[in-house]
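Sample intake — Tat pathway signal protein
Collected from: Woeseia oceani
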Amino acid sequence: MNMLDRRELLKRMAATTVACSLPGLTFGRADTDARFVLVILRGAMDGLAFAPPYGDKDYARTRGALALAAPGTDDGALKLDNLFGLHPSFKAVHDMYRRGEATLLHAVASPYRERSHFDGQDVLENGALKAGDLRDGWLNRALASLGGSLGNERAIALSQSTPLILRGAQSVTSWAPSAMPDANEDTLQRLADLYADDEFFRVRLQQALEAQAIAGDSDGMGRTRGNDAVRFEASMRQAARFLSAGNGPQIAVLESGGWDTHANQGTFAGSLANRFTGLDTGLATLKNELGDTWKNTVVVVATEFGRTVAVNGTRGTDHGTASAALLAGGSVRGGRVIANWPGLSSSALYEGRDLYPTTDLRSLFKAVLTEHLGVPAERVEAEVFPDSDSAQPLENLLS
């Protein structure tokens, strides 16, 4: 068997449903109770739909046909405070908010100020000022302070490939299901014998088997075509299993696509509302599946940029600048909206069309890294987010 065949076989084995195990398996073992989940919404999620500023005097006028009704009315927003509400699809998140387990952040953005999905996601994940400035991810650089090594990784990507945010010098792992047939015990033992003297492949095979043992049934992940919500909920369930396992990782990164709502966006119902329901269900599933681990967990939901304030000619919105982000978990000092609100008057908009960014997403990420994961502040400033003096960590986010 040549090296190419071996690599391809191992890649397939890592994603195959395995019903047996081998002795002496090792996976990442976190030496702290803190858990972190990052959900990246790819496609630029409309923050004004996610958390409508119904109390802004210019909201109804500037949003036009996309404006949601005020709280207390039919199909209206779910009240957070006298200025902001939640889209009515977020019933579980609203319950977390009332329990003090969720905080909304509004008018947030990365340093990126153009409107390309590719470049916006690059800046969100590389932690630099511009796309292409760094070719590794800020979360991978942060892992240098958390220990970990081959076979003892601290972070896992719940995806077919590792996203940029986790790529870099630090070893990470990933897991995704496959519809391939189960491998029998004899085949697995032969592979174990084949890789006995090859540390990299031996460890990766052992990890694949233990990962599958932790994940169990993939619950239809990858098999439910056309239903992003079902796949996302299943991914969140698997993330919870990994993070709550005694020998599991500490950090999980998930992705959700399809947030580019150029046409027929809808208001309380429609395509965007359906995606919001899927996100809400996934977050509720994560909380429920984590059980006691939830109390030590922080979840961040963020997107590469926001969308235009005004509706376009196809009843949707175009690429914008600032959006909203969600901070949730049992370790969160929730029940708050954090926003240096710029307003929606014509003079307050960024370039006359977008929600003006007033809070840097790096300020949120820095706070989570230092307060929750214990990454030294000096390393965060020098290595994780270089050239970020203008983005000071937000304070008192976590309990």
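Post-analysis note: The first helix runs from residue 3 to 14.
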